TrEMBL record:
The enzyme's E.C. designation: 1.-.-.-
Domain of life of the organism encoding this protein: Bacteria
Organism this protein belongs to: Jatrophihabitans lederbergiae
Protein name: Putative NAD(P)H nitroreductase
Gene3D superfamilies: NADH Oxidase (3.40.109.10)
Pfam families noted in UniProt: Nitroreductase
Record PANTHER family: NAD(P)H NITROREDUCTASE YDJA-RELATED (PTHR43821:SF1)
Keywords, ordered alphabetically: Flavoprotein, FMN, NAD, NADP, Oxidoreductase
Region (Disordered): 180-199
SUPFAM superfamilies: FMN-dependent nitroreductase-like
Cofactor: FMN
InterPro entries: NAD(P)H_nitroreductase, Nitroreductase, Nitroreductase-like, YdjA-like
């Protein structure tokens, strides 16, 4: 698939199938995504994959963290949230003190990498949806993921197989490739006039 087609076709999909990239495949995709813009090449991020029963541990942490009464429908709903995909990948920004790269740039570099990873996964036939919400701040969740004080949880990529929804197929796994129209961005770009030099 060419780059422009991939960008126009990638979509966050839910629900997804039970198929997921292996740990080795995920590592390969991450290595590609790691080419994303990154001031000083700090790679100020790390990922934690969460599969199978580990997703239930996350669900339990959500239930405790949100204070849901165990055994209630609300608790069951909260606990089932991580089960919406076979593979969750926690996205952690790991900023360091750097004389030239402030923390905000490291956060931006992390987001750039994740965006690229979504595209790389799509190109390989998978679907990924970035989800976050107040759960990222819960101490129970941070403890489960063994996050250090300075690390910031940016949510999870929910990764799985795309249900077969269209005629064109992505050869790798069989996901549908449907190009979406470009969003209207007319008001999002302006040009500074040459004007008169003031400095
Ligand atoms: C940082 C971040 C956090 C997000 N968190 C959520 C979320 O918690 N729930 C949700 O439904 N979508 C969330 N989204 C949006 C989806 O990931 C997705 O981008 C959006 O539904 C648009 O779909 P598309 O990716 O197919 O264009 C988030 C996106 C970003 C960038």
């Amino acid at each position: 698939m060419d780059l422009i087609t991939a960008i126009r076709s990638r979509r966050s999909t839910a629900p997804v199938t039970d198929a997921a990239p292996s740990e080795a495949e995920l590592r390969e995709h991450l290595a590609v995504a790691a080419h994303s813009p990154d001031h000083a090449g700090l790679r100020p991020w790390r990922l934690i994959s969460i599969r199978g029963a580990a997703r239930q541990r996350l669900g339990d942490a959500l239930v405790t963290g949100f204070g849901d009464e165990p055994g209630t429908p609300a608790a069951a709903k909260t606990a089932s949230r991580p089960l919406r995909a076979p593979l969750l990948v926690a996205i952690v920004c790991t900023p360091v003190q750097h004389p030239k790269v402030p923390a905000w740039e490291q956060l931006a570099a992390t987001a750039a990498m994740v965006s690229t990873l979504e595209l790389v996964l799509f190109n390989a036939g998978w679907t990924a949806m970035w989800r976050s919400g107040p759960a990222v701040e819960l101490p129970e969740v941070r403890r489960l993921l063994e996050l250090a004080e300075h690390e910031q949880l940016l949510g999870w990529l929910y990764i799985g197989g795309s249900p077969d929804t269209g005629p064109a197929q992505n050869a790798a796994v069989g996901s549908a490739v449907v190009e979406q129209p470009d969003p209207e961005v007319g008001g999002k770009l302006s040009e500074l006039s040459a004007g008169t030099a003031t400095v």
